[in-house]
């Protein structure tokens, strides 16, 4: 989006953050609050700290859709993981296939082969957009208060994704649930504080 579109989007996002009680917010165990703006577009607010981020949660995953995500507030590092068996580098991970969605649709992983993965980090800053293919394993490391708009393009199978966790440990679910009022305001307060600081030039 161009500069004018970005500023307009920030203003619209601020209106949502200032009156969060007008919307339904699922919270995910990765420390992310989300809002469906349309069937394909979601607003994400990140606050990946305890107790909002589940302890030892299995963070590496892919998606049943391609997507483009734009940073409206804050910044993040997008860690991308690729197979590296030929060079015998990287870390060995267990893999599983999960059925996405809230309970009772969510199910534990059907175990797949282990994978040796190497990490590449992509910094994504305010106003930038990053693109992800559905099959790409990644992990998001966001600054608390980061807000993104995720534009998804579902594939023929929109319900299954791959998750990874270190060999020798157990899979820990990040499945979504309805956020409490206190959780919603905790997330939106930190996002508004970061937006205010950016507007004042303190975090740019």
Structure description:
This protein has 204 residues and is of the alpha+beta class. The chain has a single domain (3-199), classed as Jelly Rolls, CATH 2.60.120. 17% of the residues lie in helices and 40% in strands. The radius of gyration is 17 Å and the shape is globular. The two termini are 19 Å apart. The mean pLDDT is 93.
Helix content: 10-25%
CATH architecture: Sandwich
Principal-axes geometry comes out as globular
Q: In which order are the strands of the major sheet placed? A: 10-5-12-3-2-1-14
Tally of strands:
14
Helix segment tally? 2
What is the radius of gyration?
Answer: 17 Å
Task: Return the domain count.
Answer: 1
In the CATH scheme, what's the topology name? Answer: Jelly Rolls
Q: What number is the mean pLDDT?
A: 93
CATH superfamily placement:
Jelly Rolls
Report the sheet-strand fraction: 35-45%
- Report the biggest beta sheet as strand number plus sense, adding barrel if it closes: 7 strands, antiparallel
Structural class: alpha+beta
> Distance between the terminal alpha carbons, to the nearest Å?
19 Å
Low-pLDDT ranges: none
User: Helix and strand succession?
Assistant: HEEEEEEEEEEEEEEH
CATH class: Mainly Beta
Give the gist of this structure:
This protein is of the alpha+beta class and 204 residues long.
SSE map:
Layout: H1 3-18, E1 26-28, E2 32-36, E3 41-46, E4 60-61, E5 65-73, E6 76-83, E7 91-99, E8 110-111, E9 115-124, E10 129-132, E11 137-142, E12 147-154, E13 160-166, E14 177-178, H2 181-199
Antiparallel strand pairs: 1-2, 1-14, 2-3, 3-12, 4-13, 5-10, 5-12, 6-9, 6-11, 7-8, 7-9, 7-13
